[in-house]
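Pilot study result, target chain (310 residues):
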Amino acid sequence: MKRVSCIDIGTNTALLLIADLEPESGAIIPVLHRQTIVRLGQQVDERKLIGSDALSRLLACMHEYRTLSEEHGSETIIAGGTSALRDAANREEVIAAVRMQTGIAITCISGTEEAELTFFGAVAGLNDLPETLAVIDIGGGSTEISMGSPEGVEKSISMDIGSVRLTERFFSSLPPSAEEFEAAREEIDRVLGASILPFFASRESVYGVAGTLTTIAQVSQGLKHFDARKVQNYPLDYGEVHRLLEQLRNSALEEILALGIPDGRADVITMGTLILHQFMRLLGVAELRVSIQGLRFGLAQQELLRLQQL
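Predicted structure:
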């Protein structure tokens, strides 16, 4: 058995999973979860640079995650950075600063790698999986969609439509104007239509991961606080997403916060919900299953496979 820490550094959040890996049984046994909103991708879409404030937030988070890892006896820390790092011209400087100040080595993961790791992470440990399935991961900077089977990914795509990126690009206030909302919807439809519509074929078995999906599942159940047991494997239907989107598109930030959506996600949840809504509407997805797992579980799965091959 080996204890590892897996860190998913996204555009909006950094997620930590400390888990025990059992090569003999193939099990990933979670020990600790942490989520921190770092907003690493703040204005990266516009400036193509990670700013000093965002770097400071990332460094503080990595210091905390290193301490937690040491306290829990992790033997290895595996960290992957996604859309914000991919887009930033100064990503090598950011990676170097984190390594120098915290000792954590971040790997910048390509969009294809992110989609595949998330696919396996989303369904890791689940039983009775269908023969074909799809996974959607709506992040802050990008959205990944993967299709395949429990044996492997057959097709994956990464699109530059994320809740932070498009909020910064299209919304000047909350609630957005009707014109801003429509412009964002048209851009999402354009990207989905060009990227995924031609080959999407897994409408019956779709899993959704990441903060947008888990937050929507939380709010749809009337929960003021996140409850992993109630969110994991929650069947989220199109009607629930549509009703929430109609509420959010007319809500100010204070009203969104009052729903129990945390600060740091509340200002981008309207856009995240719009992305999910258009995905389900355009591709005819009536229902999907929400998974609290994702990229960090995919990193753990990758390390587990490496251990099994030793």
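One observation from the pilot: Residues 52-71 form the longest helix (20 residues). A full batch analysis is planned for the follow-on phase.
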